[in-house]
Specification:
alpha/beta, single chain
């Protein structure tokens, strides 16, 4: 059985490693290639986009696979929609692997926003020194807030923004380091996406302990009409079941 794994996340790398140990299963991991020094999963890897849903459908016809697992980032809504459209067109089973989102704990002061622009609009009502941890995509929405801003990205935006200071770093991040950033830069509001997972969750614990409010951008809803799982183990079991299903 050959599986196309749409990835780039930690769960995708973990899943590729787990499936490598399943007899009779061969995995092709597909990465968007948007960040430098990408951590590669085990097994076969392709890098680059497909050219939308039609491009992915064409790829599936040219490179037949028995199943597709979408383990992309929770905010990669376009890729997930394309995967659902393409697999329906070709008739290939699809499952979406999405880690659960974060939930506030006692002591948290969270403000939910539906988009980056909505988050930028609410910021002046909450604080004056902002720490953006949303990655480099979407930074422009915060350019006109007039607030002092620190942004953390894996790779620098192009062009590099003049309206904010940058930290270039890749998670996971330690609690003590997150606290130091908040204290050293006198941050009084954090902005993050509801990405979920442990790799970047320390910032939330740091804001809780320091009493700093957080603006949390909601993740986009998953498309209707798909199977979804929340853990790597559940994705492995889905692939195993798919491998034993009758094929037409």
């Amino acid at each position: 059985m050959k599986v196309l794994l749409l990835g780039g996340t930690g769960e995708a790398r973990e899943l590729a490693g787990a499936l490598a140990g399943v007899p009779g299963v061969e995995v092709v991991s597909s990465l968007a290639g948007r960040t430098s020094d990408t951590r590669l999963p085990v097994g076969e890897v392709r890098v680059g986009g497909f050219g939308g849903a039609s491009g992915l459908a064409a790829w599936l016809r040219e490179h037949p696979v028995e199943a597709v697992v979408d383990a992309t980032h929770p905010f990669a809504a376009t890729m997930t929609a394309n995967a659902l459209t393409a697999t329906r067109e070709v008739g290939t089973p699809l499952v979406v692997l999405r880690r659960p989102g974060w939930t506030p704990a006692p002591g948290d002061n969270w403000h939910w926003a539906d988009s980056t622009s909505a988050a930028a609009n609410v910021l002046p009502q909450i604080g004056t020194r902002v720490f953006l941890t949303i990655g480099r995509q979407g930074l422009d929405a915060f350019a006109d807030t007039g607030l002092w801003t620190l942004a953390r990205c894996v790779d620098p935006p192009d062009p590099r923004p003049a309206w904010c200071e940058l930290i270039l770093a890749r998670g996971p991040f330690a609690l003590a380091d997150e606290q130091a950033i908040l204290r050293d830069h006198r941050i009084d509001v954090l902005v993050t996406k509801d990405s979920g997972g442990p790799a970047t969750a320390a910032k939330l614990a740091a804001t809780r302990e320091l009493g700093i409010p957080v603006v949390v951008i909601r993740r986009p809803p998953l498309p209707v009409g798909h199977e979804a799982v929340e853990t790597v183990e559940d994705a492995v079991q889905w692939v195993i079941r798919a491998s034993h299903s009758p094929r037409t």
